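Researcher: Batch entry, complex prediction.
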Amino acid sequence: MNDLIEQWVRPGVLALSAYHVANPRGLIKLDAMENPYTWPESLKEEWVALLRGTDVNRYPDPEGTELKQGLRQAFNVPEGAGLLLGNGSDEIIQMLALTLGGPGRVMLSVDPGFVMYRMIATFTGLEYVGVPLRQADFSLDMDELRQAIDRYSPALLFLAYPNNPSGNLFAADEVREIIRAAPGLVVVDEAYAPFTDESFLSEVLEHPNLLVMRTLSKMGLAGLRLGYVAGDPAWIGELDKTRMPYNINVLTQVSAGLALRHASVFVQQTRAIRVEREAMFQRLLVMDGVQPLPSQANFILCRTADGRALELFQGLKAAGVLIKNLHGAHPMLRNCLRVTVGRPEENAAFLNTLERLLQGMD
Ligand SMILES: *Cc1c(COP(=O)(O)O)cnc(C)c1O
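Model: Structure tokens for the complex:
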């Protein structure tokens, strides 16, 4: 390695591997929790017309005022809550870490959890503490969490609700207990809100240390990169100081605004995904050699027989279906595969191939 790199790149960054994204060319893409449906033709027409009237020679509205109004209406953000936009919710995690980080400060979450928490903690110089979930059902281990909160006094605590990569919802009362016990800020990450009826958004102003973060990615706008975080306007004001000016570009502002005016399209799509999720779960449940975990998200985590995850992943890929192999990502994800719920015919291709592979017919 170039000596200068070793000398100057921060050790935490040197030790990381870059976030890996598989090349999906030609494959049925069930690896990244995307909505598989595109926009109806009539909506595309309206979109093109809107873009034709949009100029890119000027900077975008720095506050995204109109877009925020659209988000408030579409998602029932409590009146009086402040709102901050991010270039994806990943950027919001980064703003949170920049705002609350610093030498000797801790970001706490649960493991296995969303990998960007740990990565962003590392980039920004926060110590990351991951408290293991319970192996049996990926629920919160409250004793361990209470102890870790006492011991580390985290400045920032993330809980994904539902959790990624397990797909389950934690018990709401336990989440509330953590919010009360935490000395610092708690962020409930509701990236999968479109796929569950549970949410903390309506109670975000009831706790002085709670923010609720969401993204439009999983709902169907992953390509636009738009996330938001809601809560006490005083918290939001501090976070806003670390935001890059004009972080939400013009095309995203107008396109997401249009999508929100047609929110029913996405409600229909995500409902279809929820129905498919249940059908997929039922089929996985009766297959010999995989054990699916009940999910409130748009993906299903499956445990496979010991030593078979990679082979099944590769067999699926060879048959044209790309999912995510999580074996090796964390000890609790041993033999685990994660599949995103796609369109019915995509899910059928996945299920039929998996069944064949499990029966040793391939
Ligand atoms: C996908 C995901 C995000 C990030 O979404 P963006 O595309 O950056 O908005 C955040 N949290 C969790 C738990 C996720 O799964």
